[in-house]
């Protein structure tokens, strides 16, 4: 086996069947210079450890947290334990296509200074069927325009991400040194956006490609979706965007600061939830959603 160059970190608390499929998709990569670390955040299923013990693959490590860290805590743990030149924070229900690592590492070779690569992604539902719900149609509109691989950076990239997060974080391939050079804000409640923005603000660039090599699973119900419907996630988002507006202002990126204060896609998401809250006769959700729509 060649020496590994990319850490695939896989934080887990979910469906063991989907986890096993995610692991198999890593094993089926066209190249072998990877190492997979699964960090189980205390999922109550004793069969998981036994399954990993029976894999007989030295490239795969299974760890179980002695105490549950929660999703953000487990994500941080995974990033802190990256050791190789590149890393991927894969979702435990997503799938790499066999040429995924070939694709993203070739792009890193082509742009050796880039901090991260966002490859092409297809979206699937709970039954593996290709879907394109509203959230993903909006993402495609927000992503940088162009065809073929292109490098984006600076305030333009920050403005784009603050208007709406068009990234698929489990598909990102990071250059480890770029992440090690920044300090992740402890107060980052919107973790998926906090790390890319921190790296961009410190001068990191991103390569965006359209060639699909990763399958992202969009569940019909999810923690983020249920939180949005109830309105309780938006207070966290307001705190995050307010902090980003201050940080961008301090950097002199005034367009990015304005995009953070307006956080247009986050407000649109709240607006989409209003009819459901009306039908449910949920005054608490309506107050939370209204506050997010009107507060700056």
TrEMBL record:
Per the UniProt record, one Pfam family is Glycos_transf_2
Which InterPro entries does the annotation name?
Glyco_trans_2-like, Glycosyltransf_2, Nucleotide-diphossugar_trans
Residue span, Glycosyltransferase 2-like domain: 8-126
Q: Which SUPFAM superfamilies match?
A: Nucleotide-diphospho-sugar transferases
- List the PANTHER family hit by this protein, alphabetically: GLYCOSYLTRANSFERASE, GLYCOSYLTRANSFERASE 2-LIKE DOMAIN-CONTAINING PROTEIN
Name recorded for this polypeptide: Glycosyltransferase 2-like domain-containing protein
Q: Which organism is it from?
A: Pseudonocardia kongjuensis
């Amino acid at each position: 086996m060649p020496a590994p160059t990319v850490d695939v970190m896989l934080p887990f608390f979910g469906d063991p069947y989907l986890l096993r499929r995610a692991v198999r998709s890593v094993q089926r990569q066209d190249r072998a210079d990877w190492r997979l670390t699964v960090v189980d955040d205390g999922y109550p299923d004793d069969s998981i450890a036994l399954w990993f013990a029976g894999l007989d693959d030295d490239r795969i490590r299974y760890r179980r947290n002695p105490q549950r860290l929660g999703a953000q805590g487990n994500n941080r743990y995974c990033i802190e334990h990256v050791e190789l030149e590149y890393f991927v924070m894969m979702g435990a229900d997503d799938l790499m296509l066999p040429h995924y690592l070939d694709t993203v590492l070739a792009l890193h070779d082509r742009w050796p200074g880039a901090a991260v690569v966002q490859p092409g992604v297809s979206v699937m539902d709970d039954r593996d069927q290709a879907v394109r719900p509203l959230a993903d149609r909006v993402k495609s509109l927000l992503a940088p325009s162009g065809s073929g691989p292109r490098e984006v950076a600076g305030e333009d990239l920050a403005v784009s991400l603050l208007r709406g997060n068009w990234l698929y974080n489990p598909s990102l391939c990071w250059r480890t040194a770029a992440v090690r050079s920044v300090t992740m804000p402890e107060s980052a409640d919107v973790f998926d956006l906090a790390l890319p923005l921190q790296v961009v603000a410190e001068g990191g660039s991103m390569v965006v490609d359209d060639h699909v090599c990763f399958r992202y699973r969009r569940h019909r119900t999810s923690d983020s979706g249920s939180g949005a419907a109830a309105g309780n996630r938006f207070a966290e988002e307001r705190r995050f965007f307010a902090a980003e507006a201050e940080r961008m202002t301090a950097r002199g990126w005034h367009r990015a600061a304005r995009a953070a204060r307006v956080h247009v896609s986050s407000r649109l998401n709240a607006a989409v939830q209003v009819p459901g809250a009306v039908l449910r006769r949920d005054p608490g959700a309506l107050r939370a959603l209204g506050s997010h729509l009107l507060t700056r």
